[in-house]
Known about the structure:
Layout: E1 4-9, H1 13-23, E2 29-35, H2 39-48, E3 53-55, H3 58-64, E4 69-72, H4 76-88, E5 92-96, H5 103-116, E6 120-123, H6 130-140, E7 147-155, H7 168-171, H8 175-190, E8 196-204, E9 233-240, E10 245-251, E11 262-266, E12 270-272, E13 278-283, E14 286-291, H9 299-312, H10 324-343, E15 347-348
Parallel strand pairs: 1-2, 1-4, 2-3, 4-5, 5-6, 7-10
Antiparallel strand pairs: 7-11, 8-9, 8-15, 9-10, 11-12, 12-13, 13-14
Helix pairs in contact: 1-9, 4-5, 5-10, 8-10
The protein binds nicotinamide-adenine-dinucleotide (NAD).
Amino acid sequence: MKKxxxxxxxxxxxxxxAHLPSYQKIEEAEIVAIxxxxxxRAKAAAEKFNIPNYYGSVEEMLEKCELDAxxxxxxxxxxxxxxxxxxKAGKAICCEKPMAASLDAAKRxxxxxxxxGVKFMLAVPNRWAAPNMALKEVIESGELGDIYLARxxxxxxxxxxxxxxxxxxxxxxxxxxxxxxxxxxxxWFLMGCPKPVAVSAMTAAPFGNYQTRDCSRxxxxxxxxxxxxxxxxxxxxxxxxxxxxxIFEATWAINGPGLGETQLYGTKAGAIVDPKPIVxxxxxxxxxxxxxxxxxxxxxxNELRYFANYALGNISEEENKYPIEQAVxxxxxxxxxxxxxxxxxxxxxxxx
Length: 352
Ligand SMILES: NC(=O)c1ccc[n+]([C@@H]2O[C@H](COP(=O)([O-])OP(=O)(O)OC[C@H]3O[C@@H](n4cnc5c(N)ncnc54)[C@H](O)[C@@H]3O)[C@@H](O)[C@H]2O)c1
């Protein structure tokens, strides 16, 4: 079997806890190199996962190593640098969420991808989660009718990640861009990816660098400047060209319970995704609640197996489930949220 030769950019937590263990189970993929601006991290990951080559930069990795693809697991502001370097070198690209730290950066990435005719896939694992994939099939069968309203939340009571995540220059923002993206993207996918046209949102940062004890927090590595200047809450509405609307909330810290629910409301039926997909409709003149049974699976493995097959050419552009234009539209919603919060009014999204 032909395997895709992948180089990983960024040897931090998501690479070592999710991507590398998943690739070990993917027959179509072979990890041949890893790089990190802190070369000791690349060396440690190379030793742990038996990767034959490690480097201190994406440029060096691309120059010295024969690769078919790169998988970008760096800080958010590194996505642009690594993607553009990889595109210019003619490599297929898998890029961790969010696509970039800003919409302008995402647009530059798309330009480089198109100019160099390479493949690009944004890695947002919720799309590949079993309940979402099962519900997507139900929705595509027409069961819900037209979805006109969605509501989604990614709310942590005290779960602000540490390190670079709270340094806006490096991350591009707080929970909206970090964990809002997971839920907004999955809800948008289930809605059929209607074109976003406007956003009205707020952000707030009442918690900042709190010292609450015994909280489980994702550990990011320290950023060069160590700033702490991101929001810790974001909420608002996104309007779509087809008249539909999404209400979202994303927090790293709030005085309330953690929540992670998504509801979809259609003209024929509605559905919830979490904790298990249920379709709320009518049957025989009575109300009906139908649970969608699904077989659970690892969403990172699904996502990265898809990428390996896409990069190998086993999935055509027409079949591609996450075209780069959609990734830029996703980023335009995140940007719209920040722009609307700064302007304190609804802002238009215009990507034409
Ligand atoms: N899909 C998910 O569920 C999920 C979860 C956590 C993080 N992430 C994403 O993964 C990415 C990395 O997050 P993390 O938690 O692993 O952070 P991390 O700090 O643990 O690791 C990031 C690594 O990237 C390196 N790096 C930064 N810029 C680089 C560059 N230009 N070239 C090469 N290496 C560079 C850093 O030195 C660091 O070792 C982020 O984009 C984040 O949003 C996704």
